[in-house]
Structures are given as structure tokens and as C-alpha cells.
Amino acid sequence: MLEATTSNPLLERYRCEDRFGCAHTPADLPYDPWQTIHNLRLERYIGNGKSDSLLKSAYYLLRPALPVSLKRSLQRHYLKDWRSLQFPRWPVDFTVETILEKSLCGALQNHDLTALPFIWFWPDGHTGCAAMTHDVETQSGRDFCSQLMDIDDAYGIKSSFQVVPEKRYSIPPAFLDEIRSRGFEINIHGLDHNGNLFADLKQFQRSSERINAYARQFGAKGFRSPVLYRNADWLRYLSFSYDMSFPNVGHLDPQRGGCCTVFPYFIDSMVELPLTTTQDYSLFYYLKETSIQLWKEQIESILDKNGLISVLVHPDYIIQQRERSLYQELLSLITDYRERWDLWTPTPGEVAQWWRARSEMTLRWDGMRWIIDGPQRDRARVAYARIEDGQIEYSLQDLPARVAQPA
Question: Model's pTM, two decimal places?
């Protein structure tokens, strides 16, 4: 959380937490927006989900013996009501961003300011961020990873590969060495991908010990839970720098919900990189899409908020030419936005490293201008949030308007 080292009352009261680089308490508001944001990010608005736990356990027990066509039919039946879900809002939910922006707008108006300085979201002034991730679920997917790295490299993108350490397939040292030597990242994808990782706390604690051991063995810094099953309160048992298990909107996932934000955030000491676009399996097999139009709409709306575009594409599901061509079309779109809109395309680990460094930065007034102190400050930029037509807009240029300065 960023502390502004000035005596300015607005900066001291307006702590924009990990999204903005300034200080805030809800003194100007009739409610505490941070409690609301915290509850949304951690999905506190959702019930405990135990009513279908027996059904889920039975499904995963029988799943290995079920034909693919039957598994997909059962999955579509389970998710058949997804279009009727009103919250989070499909296809991308910006509830957290809306609360932040309205709170900031009110604070600026109450203090008769037209702009407030903060530390820009991304390094080097990039307008947004896109990170590519690959969950490896089967041996055929593992065997396709070399070709997938070739495809990513062809578009100048380095991605992460989440591997299942037990039962699904073997993980030869040569496989891990190739990923590392080519500049890609290795992360952990659960333990054995049986869908019951979060079914019982004591079992999770035992499993987490083995997961953490594999993380040390593989040099993995990131984690993603199988099938995006998750429990924010249990993540403290995992020893990772970052997690990628929370969807922005979970309508098409077995565990419904969503964190309602398109920016990274902290869960205790772990950086959460939310999944902000529809994963490939849902796109291909639930929605039966034959184009990347949904991805394009999601990406453009996230870019409009300067947010994180997080993409999950499994090597297992793009082996066939049709799906592979759609993925290449997606990569082409992202690289086009990288050139036209200055989109940053790092690995997930680099995103988490930046967000952690940014959380340790501070803004300091040197008598003439705002200075950023802290790790990676050479890549950080001072930006301004201002009100325009009743909405919050951002600028990286110094503004002549009356901005927040030390008294």
C-alpha cells in the first residue's frame, strides 16, 4: 500500500491502495469503499458452495472413465443457466474500478481539485498489459508445448506454462529446461488436477505441502488452481509470489463468482493476477465460438480501463488446426495493439514483480514536482487523475490545473 510522504491533506486521506499511488481513508464518503472492494475481490458475496460438493466429488471420481462427449454434455448442462446470471456483469465486470473512480471523483470535487497525482499502473508509461498463460492438462498437451512456444515466439510473446506435478503425466527435466532456456515461465497447476483440491481444509493443508515442494523443485513462482477452484482464505498455505486462480467473471466456470476487477491486487502477501478473458475451453466447447470476436470485445474494454488482459489458452485444446488458427489470430490482435496502443506484453511473473514493486513506491514532492521513490522507480511514471465531463480520466503529462500539492 502506497504512502504519500507529504503533508497534503488530500493525499493523506485518499489512499488509492494498490491501484493508485496515493493515500486514502473514506472520510469524504458515507461508506467504506475499501471494505466493499475487499469483499468483491475475495468473492465474499458468494455462499459457501457446499450444496453441490457431493455431486462435484462424484463427477471427478467418474471423470477419467467418461467419454469426452459425455463430459462436455454434462458440463454444458451444469452451466446452462449462465446467461441468466446478473452479477458479475458479463463479459467483463468493472465494479471495483467503478467504485474506485467514483470515490476518487468525489474526493477531487470535495477538495476543489481538478487533478490528483499517482503512480501510473504500468512501467514505462504503457497503456495496458497483456499476459499469456498456458495450463498443461494432459500428456498430449505437454508434448505440444514446444510447438506452442514456437507459436508464441513468432509473435514476440513469452508466456507461462502451468504444469500438473502428479499423476497426469511425467515432467522430465529436459521439458522444464526447454521452457526455462527459451525464456518462458514454469508455474504449478494444482497437485493432480482431480478437482477436489479445495474440498477440505485439512486435506488442502497436506496437499499444499507437496505443492510447495514442487514449486521449490521446479523454481515456480506462480500458481493456478485446476478448474479455477479457489478459496482466498486458504491461499496463505501456499508459498508463491503470485496466484492466477480468480476469474473476473466466473459464469462459465464450475465455481461461480468473480473478483470484479481487471487489475492485479494483493491477497495477503500474494499478488493476484485475475483471469480477465474467457478461457479457450469455454470459448470453443461451451460457447462453440468460431471466431475471436468475444476475446476482441473483452480485450478492447479492458484496454479502455488501462487494465490487465490475462489470457488462458491450453496447449491441449489448440492442437487441432481450427483452434490453433484462432489462437494465432488472437496473438496477431495482441501484437497489433502492442504496436498501436503501446500495450505491455510481459510474462505473468514480470507482471507480479512489477505490481509488488509498485506497491512499495512512494510519491514525494521535492518543491517543484512529484518524485517517485522505491524499487524500479526508473520505470515508473507520475500520472494524474482528473475529472472530465463528470468522469475520471488519466494523463501522464504535467497539468497546469490546480493539482494536489503539499500545503
Answer: 0.87
